Amino acid sequence: MWTLEGSKASFTCGPLLGCVRPDHLVSGVLCKTWNGQACDAFAILQLAIPPTEDGPRPELLEAYVRGGDLVATYARTPPLTVAPQIYWRLSFAERMQAVAIEVVLSMNTDLLESQPFSAINTVGFECNLFHSSELNAAQFAQLTSASGKYRFESHQSPTHLFVARNSSLNLSYAEMVFPDDFVAAEIDFRGEQYGTYRIHSQLFPEGLEKGVIRRGRVCGWFMPAENDLETAVELARQFVNEPPPLTT
To answer: Residues 6 or more apart from 180 whose CB is under 8 A from it?
Structure first.
């Protein structure tokens, strides 16, 4: 699934081709083609550690491929107080023709009062965006720029599933933070172009003591646009109910 060349890891999973730059986390997962057709409408799972745009970034120590996983470990470069380890995991649900890209983010602390606060950003272009907190295909609501900025918090519901549909590509993308890890998500629409949006999800707002490992999970799925809401709900339910992943 993965081909690691220098600082870039390319992957093929089902009909999806893309790449990840472990040394440049804010670029996220870049999708190149879907069924041989260019699919540059999505830039997903962009990791900001810490969440500020101009803050220091963790230094990559090592990246390697193990099975369906791309694994990267990072140094605790001051002023950062945590040492991240990240897994990118690929899987293909052939029956639904859906590709899953899961990110498992672990924060290892070796200082008192460490701050692991991080964010994940996903951007889509020329898409209709839908949201459900019920994991029910009949409970989706469309989010539009006319309503301004949206904010969803864990006290409202721990379960928030977003589906973005690009009709011209006949391709949809769904994303969900694992309910135990969900803190808040903000949605804003950017520029004048209809359907250009950003999903900004927050992780680990709490301080950690020395010697603690805090782990968070978020999963994204690419799928055909037809019946995408039903497909996304089925995949999200599987994600919620599956056992925790094994990591080192």
So the answer is: 158
Q: Where do the DSSP E strands lie in 49-160?
A: 59-66, 69-75, 82-93, 98-109, 118-124, 128-132, 141-143, 150-153
Distance CA 21, CA 6 (A): 9
Cα–Cα distance list, 89 to 44, 55, 106, 166, 192 (Å)? 14, 27, 14, 24, 34
* C-alpha to C-alpha distance for 125 and 197, rounded to whole angstroms: 7
For 73-111, letters b (16+ CB in 10 Å) and e give bbebeeebbbbbbbbbbbebbeebebbbbbbbbbbbbeb
Q: Show the beta-strand stretches assigned E in 135-212.
A: 141-143, 150-153, 161-166, 171-177, 184-189, 197-203
Q: Which two tokens stand for residue 69?
A: 């996983």
* Annotated domain spans of the chain: 2-241
Q: Is the pLDDT of residue 200 over 60?
A: yes
Q: Terminal CA-to-CA distance of the chain, rounded, Å? A: 20
The whole-model pTM stands at 0.90
pLDDT in tens, 217-232: 999 999 999 999 999 9
Query: How many other C-beta atoms can be found within 10 angstroms of the C-beta atom of residue 179?
Result: 16
CATH 2.70.98.90 fits 2-241, yes or no: yes
